Amino acid sequence: MTLEHISQQEDSIARRYDYDDGELIVADFGTADVSVDVLDDVAIVVVERDGDSFQTEIELSADDAQAFINNGVLTIEVGQ
User: Fold this and answer.
1) What CA–CA distance (Å, rounded) separates 26 from 56?
2) Residues whose CB is less than 8 angstroms from the CB of residue 39 and which lie 6 or more positions away in sequence, other chains included
């Protein structure tokens, strides 16, 4: 397993974990409203907090990905 730190903003942090059989991307956005769309090998994440919003794109290593959000934690599982 290898770990890549993706980004850190105020109170949110995202990390990418690479495994032999795929990768896992986890981001904790706290109480912000988060939505995610996976299109082929890119995850588009939109975060709204305190009237402000920002969008980021996360490149994925394959186009076989599933994304879900639970209690402000975004998880993207990518198979290889």
Assistant:
1) 14
2) none
User: If you write DSSP's letter for every residue of 67-78 in order, what string do you get?
Assistant: EEEETTEEEEEE
What is the rounded CA–CA span in Å between residue 22 and residue 18? 6
Contacts of 47 by beta carbon, 8 Å cutoff, 6+ apart: 12, 29, 32, 33, 34, 53, 54, 55, 56
The pTM assigned to this predicted structure is 0.80
* pLDDT tens over the chain, length 80 residues: 344 445 545 555 778 888 888 899 998 888 888 899 999 889 998 888 888 888 888 888 888 899 999 988 999 999 86
In order of their start, the domains of the chain are 2-79 (2.60.40.790)
